What does this fold into?
Amino acid sequence: MDIEKKRFKLSFYVPALLVFLLALVQALQSGLQESWYRLGIYPREISSLPGIITQVFIHENWAHFFNNAVPLFVLSWCFYYFYRELFWKGSLLLWISSGLFTWLIGRPNWHIGASGLIYAYSFFLFFSGLIRGHKPLMAISFVVVFLYGSTFWNMFPWGEFNRDISWEGHLSGAMAGLLWALLLRKQGPQAPPPPEEEDEEEAINSELDSTAEELAEKNPDKDEVKVTGENSSWQTAINVFPNAPEQQQPTA
It folds into this structure.
């Protein structure tokens, strides 16, 4: 229990550090009264490829930052706690993939913010739990739906969609999350294996032995005959005709 509590607490450090770095960048932008939007992604511009990495740190203003900071912290904590052995590898793949997809499909405009990574985390957590069939991870899948299910509608330009929102970044993150949930399904935590057939056979044999012992106790005056065969568990049988003539043992 103490180890689990320690792991629970340690899982806060990395997500907190990530959010702190984003806050530091936003504070520098505000303090210098500059906008570093050119560190974002401009789709299909070769010079903008580094933005695949840097766009996560750039936000338009503090309101934009806070809208992303809370879900980023919660989802990255869930990923770190429940998929700890996959966190660094998975985060890097989700980060790069979501940015690359935005670079490929986005409108010709600057795309900034951590929302693509947020969608990548949320879709990975949701689909990975269902694919793995592991009950604790499936529970996290439904928690993600409960908390952030409404964000699904921000993945497409429905109706009077706010054109300042990068729906392409959201969709790119969702695609990255689903993709890596499938590709990494054999890595990280797995559902416990089903009981082996041998275990079931042992249970049956044990039950047969118990039944035979009960019969022997109920018939103490009956002779017991040892039956030998391939399965040594089935050893006891009751001779209900103690006075019958003894039969010869067949020879093979």
